[in-house]
């Protein structure tokens, strides 16, 4: 970008790799690229004259636009927590104020909601991934979810729902275990504990699979 007060748009080319972005040339030299929405908004057409202040505004708005689109694409793969989006934008090289502004906009538009995210995550993990509440709590904490929201999410998992999850997992694991009956039960108990199920859930799941409670072979 030139240091003169005003510059003239001499050429505008659509990028080959990104059909929504355009390369803008000022006074015969490449100056910057911009999203098509801003190209239209600011009428960056050949022959148009822009000053330094306008250019600065355009570049700042384009960066905000890029950050927003990067976040939307990231969320589009699957729901994300606020912390995950912030980390992704940081990895993309955006500065903290811009990251926070982008997140605030997504929160206002309900694209981000840690309460709903935590509930969805908990339900999905217990039902399809066969994880217990303790495991889920640890995962949500890593994703930056507030403790109260984590508690609300795991409380939404019914005891029978968690027990069914543990029992399903135990039935698949049981035939793969080696050793005497006593040792197999010990291994099954330890396996379920590592998956984040509480001792009471594990004990009941083992009992349903083996016909004996954990106390009976302690």
From TrEMBL:
<protein>
    <recommendedName>
        <fullName>Regulatory protein RecX</fullName>
    </recommendedName>
</protein>
<dbReference type="GO" id="GO:0005737">
    <property type="term" value="C:cytoplasm"/>
</dbReference>
<dbReference type="Pfam" id="PF02631">
    <property type="entry name" value="RecX_HTH2"/>
</dbReference>
<comment type="function">
    <text>Modulates RecA activity.</text>
</comment>
<feature type="domain" description="RecX first three-helical">
    <location>
        <begin position="67"/>
        <end position="106"/>
    </location>
</feature>
<feature type="domain" description="RecX third three-helical">
    <location>
        <begin position="160"/>
        <end position="205"/>
    </location>
</feature>
<dbReference type="InterPro" id="IPR053926">
    <property type="entry name" value="RecX_HTH_1st"/>
</dbReference>
<feature type="domain" description="RecX second three-helical">
    <location>
        <begin position="113"/>
        <end position="153"/>
    </location>
</feature>
<dbReference type="GO" id="GO:0006282">
    <property type="term" value="P:regulation of DNA repair"/>
</dbReference>
<dbReference type="Pfam" id="PF21982">
    <property type="entry name" value="RecX_HTH1"/>
</dbReference>
<dbReference type="InterPro" id="IPR053925">
    <property type="entry name" value="RecX_HTH_3rd"/>
</dbReference>
<dbReference type="InterPro" id="IPR053924">
    <property type="entry name" value="RecX_HTH_2nd"/>
</dbReference>
<dbReference type="InterPro" id="IPR036388">
    <property type="entry name" value="WH-like_DNA-bd_sf"/>
</dbReference>
<dbReference type="Pfam" id="PF21981">
    <property type="entry name" value="RecX_HTH3"/>
</dbReference>
<comment type="similarity">
    <text>Belongs to the RecX family.</text>
</comment>
<dbReference type="InterPro" id="IPR003783">
    <property type="entry name" value="Regulatory_RecX"/>
</dbReference>
<keyword id="KW-0963">Cytoplasm</keyword>
């Amino acid at each position: 970008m030139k240091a003169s007060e005003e510059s003239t748009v001499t050429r505008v080319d659509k990028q080959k790799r990104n059909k929504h972005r355009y390369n803008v040339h000022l006074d015969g030299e490449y100056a910057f690229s911009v999203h098509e929405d801003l190209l239209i908004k600011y009428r960056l057409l050949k022959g148009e004259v822009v000053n330094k202040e306008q250019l600065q505004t355009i570049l700042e708005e384009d960066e905000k636009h890029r950050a927003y689109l990067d976040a939307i694409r990231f969320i589009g793969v699957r729901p994300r927590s606020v912390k995950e989006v912030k980390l992704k934008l940081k990895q993309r090289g955006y500065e903290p104020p811009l990251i926070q502004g982008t997140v605030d906009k997504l929160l206002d538009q309900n694209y981000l909601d840690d309460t709903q995210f935590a509930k969805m995550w908990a339900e999905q993990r217990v039902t399809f991934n066969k994880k217990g509440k303790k495991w889920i709590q640890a995962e949500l904490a890593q994703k930056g979810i507030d403790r109260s929201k984590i508690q609300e999410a795991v409380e939404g998992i019914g005891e029978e729902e968690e027990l069914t999850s543990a029992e399903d997992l135990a039935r698949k694991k049981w035939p793969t275990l080696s050793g005497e009956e006593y040792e197999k039960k010990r291994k099954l108990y330890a396996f379920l504990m590592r998956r984040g199920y509480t001792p009471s859930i594990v004990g009941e799941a083992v009992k349903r699979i083996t016909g004996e409670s954990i106390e009976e072979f302690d």
